[in-house]
Design a protein that fits this description.
flat; mainly alpha; MetI-like fold; two-stranded antiparallel ribbon; 76% helix
Length: 302
């Protein structure tokens, strides 16, 4: 009898917990359905339509938009531009952020001023940064253009040069986001017990040896997290690129998000814009799943 009463009380408690969990999770699930799931499904539906301008007149065309997308050289160029941003962001953002975080951790309170100065770019909005660099790198009145004129040279048009425009954008993107990863790794440094550093010092380890043999192995999970965020974020850039170059010159700095915006709200081809958005969703999802799987496997190996 006592055992059956205990089981019934346990069942009643589990039931009440499930009810409470459902009540608290329902608002979040509702928001996800309305603002995430429904737009994704609606984009795939609209991708099968010939939908011009902002009206309600839609004509079902099946896979016509998808066939056009697969053959669209400009779309694939924008995708490869995203991949370039992703790879170069990994090369520069993660190592530089780790270098700055290591410097701040080793110097502690003495480096408070550096911490403030280095974090400042991340406090600015992407639109502000885009406008700032658009004028700072102006071909005639910008920094490099003015220096070139002083030395007797001509205009320096970084944004107007198809070979330099994308790399200029990547440099600005890194300048904005390195502080974010710096703070992420600095917070991870704070989780390392000071006893490890004291023990390493007693054993005669130098700061370089402490970093490579103690700090870095302990920071690997956070480094992998930062790499994952950088990869996924690099595939979604829009505002900074749009403000500075609008994807130009030509398609030199075109990314998938700016190409989708042009198709939808410049050409007013909402059906094809939805197809671009859906294709963007598929590509980002595939890359994200592959990256997360590989990096998590490496994290587990450590």
């Amino acid at each position: 009898m006592a055992g059956s009463k205990i089981r019934s009380l346990h069942s009643a408690r589990q039931y009440s917990v499930r009810i409470a969990a459902t009540v608290f999770l329902l608002p979040a699930l509702l928001i996800m359905v309305v603002y995430i799931l429904y737009p994704i499904i609606n984009s795939f539906i609209n991708s099968t339509m010939d939908w011009r301008s902002m009206g309600r007149n839609k004509t079902f065309t099946g896979l016509a938009n998808w066939i056009t997308l697969i053959k669209d050289i400009n779309f694939w160029q924008s995708f490869f531009n995203n991949v370039k941003i992703m790879l170069l962001s990994l090369v520069f953002q993660i190592p530089f952020a780790m270098l700055l975080a290591t410097f701040l951790d080793f110097h502690g309170k003495k480096a408070v001023l550096f911490k403030i100065l280095w974090f400042f770019p991340y406090l600015l909005s992407a639109v502000v940064i885009g406008i700032l660099f658009k004028f700072s790198l102006d071909s005639h009145y910008g920094i490099f253009g003015s220096i070139s004129k002083l030395l007797g040279g001509g205009a320096v048009d970084l944004f107007g040069n198809p070979k330099a425009a994308l790399y200029t954008v990547i440099g600005i993107v890194c300048w904005q986001y390195i502080p974010f990863y710096m703070v992420l790794y600095l917070a991870a440094y704070g989780t390392i017990p000071e006893e490890l550093y004291e023990a390493a010092s007693i054993d005669g380890a130098t700061q370089d040896q402490y970093f490579w043999r103690i700090s870095l192995p302990l920071l690997r999970p956070t480094i992998i997290t930062g790499m994952t965020l950088s990869i996924i974020g690099s595939l979604k850039y829009f505002d900074l690129v749009w403000v500075m170059t609008r994807g130009g010159p030509g398609v030199a700095t075109e990314v998938m998000a700016t190409y989708m915006y042009k198709a939808s709200f410049v050409s007013f081809n909402m059906g094809y814009g939805s197809t671009v958005a859906s294709g963007m969703f598929i590509l980002i999802t595939i890359i994200a799943l592959v990256v997360i799987t590989v990096l998590n496997q490496k994290a587990n190996d450590y």
